[in-house]
Amino acid sequence: MTYHVNFELAASRDVEMAFESYELRHTGLGADFLRTVAMAADLLARDPERFAITRVSFRWIKLRRFPFALHYRIKGDTVLIVACLHFRQSPTRWPQA
Question: Could you list the residue range(s) of the whole structural domain that residue 71 is in?
Fold first, then answer.
């Protein structure tokens, strides 16, 4: 079964902000970040249950090479990504329920 992967608006904003930050550091690094997000989304489309539940009904997948994780939940045949957070961001921003 292949799942549909959707980004909530807040998660899209998180990705956009991280992209801009990396692109300002070094041209092309932001594009590398976006490719890494896309690879993680592809993995989630194939096997979202691969990652353990961490907070109530949420799961997360670490991004390769970057200190970020996609926080998501599974609803039927859809993977809903609710946030893309840096590991050092406050836990108060993490999904709660």
Answer: 4-93
Q: How many independent structural domains does the chain possess?
A: 1
| 37 phi/psi in degrees, rounded to 5 | -60, -45
pTM of the predicted structure, to 2 decimals: 0.90
CATH number, domain of 21, equals 3.30.2310.20
Phi-psi region of 92 (alpha: psi -120 to 50; beta: other; left: phi over 0): alpha
Q: What string of pLDDT tens digits covers the 97 residues of the chain?
A: 899 999 999 999 999 999 999 999 999 999 999 999 999 999 999 999 999 898 778 999 999 999 999 999 999 999 999 999 998 876 566 665 4
